[in-house]
Amino acid sequence: MAGELDANKSAVSQIADRVGPLMALPLLPARMLVGTVRELRAAIAGIGALGEVVVHLDSLQDNVLTLNREVTRMRQSVEGIGGEVVHLRETVEPIDNIDARMAEMSDGVTLLSNEMQKLEPHLVGLTDVVHPLRRLSARRARNAPGVLDSDGEVAAES
Questions:
Q1: Inside any domain, residue 132
Q2: Distance (Å, rounded) from C-alpha 100 to C-alpha 104?
Q3: Looking at the 3D structure of the chain, how many domains does it have?
Q4: pLDDT top residue among 28 and 41
Q5: pLDDT confidence of 152, banded at 50, 70, 90?
Q6: pTM for this model (two decimals)
Q7: Cα gap 155→86, rounded to integer Å
Q8: Strand partners, 154
Q9: Residue 84 · residue 76 · CB < 8 Å
C-alpha cells in the first residue's frame, strides 16, 4: 500500500512524504515558491541587520559603562559636597549666635546712650566748676616746691 496514493492526502503532500522536503520544492506551485523566496530574503536581510544591531548594542554597552563610572564619580562628589555643607553649617551657626548677641548688645548700647545723654548736662556743669579749680591748683603748684606740675614733674623752687 505504500505505493498507492492515499485518497485523504493531496498528491503533492504524498510525493513530498516519499522524496523528502527538499525534493518536493520543484513540485510546489510557482506562487508558493516566489512567496517562500521572498520570506527567505526578508529573513536573510533581518539576519544581516542583526550584525548592525550587535555593533550598536556593543557601543551602547560601552556608553552605559562610561556613564556608570561618571555617575559614581558624581555621587562621590555630591557626598563630598554634603560633608562640606555640614561643615559650613557648623561654621555659620556660631556666627548666627553672634548676631543674636550683637542684637542684645545693641539694645544695651542704646540704653547706655540714653543714659549718657541724661548725664551730659551734669558733666558740663561739673566742668564749669572744675575748670577754675584747675587754674588755682596750677598756680599753687608753680609756687610750691616739690609739688608735681601738670606734666608729672617736680616743680622747680622759685
A1: yes
A2: 6
A3: 1
A4: 41
A5: low
A6: 0.34
A7: 68
A8: 148
A9: no
Question: Which residue, chain included where needed, has cell 555659620?
Answer: 92
Q: What angle do CA 13, 4, 19 make, to 5 degrees?
A: 40
Residue matched to cell numbers 520543484: 26
Q: What are phi and psi of 154, to 5 degrees?
A: -70, 130
Euclidean distance between CA atoms 43 and 124, whole angstroms = 113
User: 115 is in which domain, residue-wise?
Assistant: 11-142
Per-residue buried b or exposed e for 73-92, using 16+ beta carbons within 10 Å of the residue's own CB: eeeeeeeeeeeeeeeeeeee
Whether 149 and 142 have beta carbons less than 8 Å apart is answered as: yes
Residue 69, all three cell numbers: 563610572
In a domain, 152, yes or no: no
Helix (H) or strand (E) holding 138: helix 30-143
